[in-house]
């Protein structure tokens, strides 16, 4: 299972009327429909210590969600993000629990971001805003205006819908304020990146729409070609970068462009875990150097961990290495 699929499953398990209420008015809906005590707290930090940007906290057993008041739609994203943590805490599928225990640091924050974006931006609303077209700058602006979602939530949601590698940028005054990508796209924009003066994104003004063939430079100064669709909305600019020309930016695509589209090689791949077989065009894991399977998302790291045969203690229900269980009990319960 991949993170996006997990987020979708958790949202789908909620009642559809509850989801509709959350999309229309998140904080009252979570209070009234789900019975949580949602409390504004000035004492919360602006950034979480575990890498997430969402400034809130949840206490599942107590039924409390805290958020830092900002007077903006960011509050909506915060409380729905924290609701995501509650949904994850309530997960009962043992296979998912074992899988999620092995996720890299920060992965659960990404799942909660996706849960928040799905709750605030349901599929019918997204379909209406995009008018049957691919994610784009104008589509992002329309979705923001038609919803109660923050700009970041819009970026996350549209990145999920890109049919190819790419990313969605939210820029302010020539600086990247936030970016969300499809898969493991690289290079892509990072928060606080300065948009180069000559880049097409830098020239988009309020109310202006731009479509262009352009690129984005990575940390090693190599530039990858992308096709951009952007629209300015006040001091903000939404821009979608896609590796395929989804917007008709170029009339003629020469064959040599296709050969240099990415530094990621396409290889034959067979997953030793789930048996998936096919062509694979993804980046290798930074830790083990093995490409992750597109079906089960396992790389060398997860397979190594899986080989330790984690099992649940029959007393405390903690998952530990199977060889550490004696009579079904972990060392802390024996």
Model description:
The chain has 3 domains: 118 residues, Orthogonal Bundle (Arc Repressor Mutant, subunit A), CATH 1.10.10.2910; 137 residues, Beta-Lactamase, CATH 3.30.450.130; 70 residues, no CATH class. About 4% of the residues have low confidence. With 334 residues, the protein is α+β, with helices and mostly antiparallel strands. It has a 5-stranded antiparallel sheet with strand order 5-4-8-7-6. A 3-stranded mixed sheet has the order 1-3-2, with helices on one face. Helix 1 crosses helix 6, helix 4 packs across helix 6 and helix 7 crosses helix 8. Helices cover 31% and strands 20% of the residues. A hairpin with a 2-residue loop joins strand 7 and strand 8.
Secondary structure topology:
Blueprint: H1 3-12, H2 16-24, H3 26-32, E1 37-40, E2 56-59, E3 64-67, H4 74-89, H5 94-101, H6 107-120, H7 123-130, H8 137-146, H9 151-160, E4 166-172, E5 175-182, E6 209-217, E7 223-233, E8 236-242, H10 255-259, E9 267-270, E10 277-280, H11 300-306, E11 310-312, E12 319-321
Parallel strand pairs: 1-3
Antiparallel strand pairs: 2-3, 4-5, 4-8, 6-7, 7-8, 9-10, 11-12
Helix pairs in contact: 1-6, 2-3, 4-6, 6-9, 7-8
């Amino acid at each position: 299972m991949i993170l996006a699929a997990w987020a979708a499953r958790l949202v789908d398990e909620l009642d559809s009327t509850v989801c509709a209420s959350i999309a229309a008015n998140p904080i009252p809906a979570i209070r009234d429909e789900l019975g949580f005590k949602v409390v504004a707290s000035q004492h919360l930090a602006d950034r979480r210590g575990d890498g997430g940007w969402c400034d809130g906290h949840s206490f599942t057993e107590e039924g409390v969600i805290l958020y830092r008041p900002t007077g903006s739609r960011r509050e909506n994203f915060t409380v729905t993000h924290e609701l995501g943590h509650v949904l994850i805490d309530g997960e009962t599928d043992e296979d998912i629990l074992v899988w999620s225990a092995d996720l890299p640091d920060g992965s659960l924050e990404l799942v909660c971001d996706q849960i928040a974006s799905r709750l605030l931006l349901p599929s019918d609303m997204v379909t209406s805003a995009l008018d049957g077209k691919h994610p784009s700058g104008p589509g992002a602006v329309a979705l923001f205006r038609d919803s109660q979602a923050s700009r970041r939530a819009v970026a996350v949601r549209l990145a999920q819908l890109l049919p190819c590698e790419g990313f969605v940028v939210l820029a302010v005054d020539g600086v990247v304020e936030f970016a969300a990508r499809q898969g493991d796209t690289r290079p892509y924009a990072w928060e606080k990146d300065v948009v180069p003066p000559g880049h097409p994104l830098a020239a988009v003004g309020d109310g202006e729409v731009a479509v262009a063939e352009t690129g984005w430079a990575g940390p090693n100064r190599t530039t990858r070609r992308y096709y951009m669709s952007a629209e300015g909305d006040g001091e903000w600019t939404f821009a979608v970068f896609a590796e395929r020309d989804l917007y008709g930016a170029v009339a003629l695509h020469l064959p040599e462009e296709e050969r240099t589209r990415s530094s990621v090689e396409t290889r034959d791949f067979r997953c030793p875990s789930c048996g998936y077989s096919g062509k694979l065009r993804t980046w290798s894991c930074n830790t083990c150097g093995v490409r992750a399977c597109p079906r089960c998302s396992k790389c060398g790291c997860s397979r190594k961990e899986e080989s330790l045969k984690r099992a649940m203690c029959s007393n405390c229900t903690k998952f530990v290495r199977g060889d550490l269980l004696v009579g079904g009990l972990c060392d802390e319960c024996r």
